[in-house]
Write a structure and sequence with these properties.
The structure is a single chain. The chain is mainly alpha-helical. The protein has 14 helices and no strands. It has helices spanning 3-6, 12-19, 39-52, 55-78, 85-99, 101-111, 118-122, 131-158, 165-175, 177-201, 204-210, 215-228, 230-249, 255-273. The relative contact order is 0.17.
Length: 274
Amino acid sequence: MHEEDQMPQDDTSGRYRSEVSGIQETMDPKWQRHLPLGAPLGWLGQGWQDLIRQPWPSLAYGFVVFLLALAATVMLFRLERDYLLFPALAGILIVAPLFAAGLYVKSRSLANGERITLREMLFVRPRAGGQVFFTGMLLCMVMLLWMRAAVIIYALFFGVNPFPGLDGVARLLVTTPSGWGMLIVGLCVGALFAGFAFAIGVFSIPMLLDERIDAFTAMGVSVVMVWNNMGPSMVWGAIVLALFLASLLTGLVGLIFVFPLLGHATWHAYKAMR
C-alpha cells in the first residue's frame, strides 16, 4: 500500500461545503424569535392602540412630518430640481426610523403607564446620547447616495438631456424600452439601498433610545435581528411600503396618520424582536 493511501483524509472538502452551504448556517438560534408571518399585523394593531391613546400628540407629530415632506417637495420645484422628486420621496423611507424617534418614546411611555407631551416627543433624550445622531447621519448619507445613484441611472439610460418634467418623464418611462429598462434597474438598485437601510435602521434607532449602547453595536444587532427573523421582517417591510405608497397617493396628506401609526407599530416590532 502506498504511503499516501495511509495518510488521513483532511476535512478541507467538508469545510468548503460548509462555506458555500445554505442560509441556515448563518442563523443564530439566540436571535430567532420564531414569530409567525402574521406577527406584523399584531404590531400594527398595537401601534393603532398607541395612536388612539393620547391621539393629538401623535397626529401633531405626523403633521410636522407632513409639513417637512411638503416643504422639501416645494423646495425641489423652486430650485428646479424636480428630477430628484421621486428619489427623494423614496428616500423618506430610509430616514424614517430617525424621524419616528418621538413616536417610539410615546409608545415606551404608554407601556410604562406615563403620559407624554408633544414637546417631549419632538425633543427626545436618547439613553445612548449622541449615538443616535451618528446613526441618523449614516441613514442620511445612505439617502443622499441613493438620490445620486438615481440621477446616474437616469443619465445612463437617457443621457444628459434636460429633464422633461413629471408628466413627460412618466410617459417616457412607460412607453419606451429605455424607460422600462431604467425602471427595472432603478427598482433593483433602490431595493438594495432600501434593504440595507431597513436592516441597519429599523431596530437600531429604537434600541439607542431605550438602551445605553453604541451606534455600531445597535446597527449590527438590528441587522442580526432582521436576518434571523427574515419572514416577519419582510412582511413588516412590505406593510410599511404599502402604507407609505398609499400616503403618497393622497398627496402626502396621509403621512399625518400613516407615519404615527407605523412609528408606534415599529416600537412594538422592536420589543418583539429584542
